[in-house]
Amino acid sequence: MNFKLFGMLALAALITIPAFAADDEKTKKKKKGNRGQNNAGAQLLKQLEDVGLSDEQMAKVKELGKDVSAKMKKIRDDAGITLEMTKKRQEVAKAMADSEKKGADLVEAINKEVGFTEAHKKALKMANELRMEFHKSVVALLDDDQKAKLPTRMKRFAGGQKNKKKGGKGKGNKSKKENPAPAAK
Question: Which sequence spans correspond to the domains of the chain?
Answer without folding.
Answer: 39-154
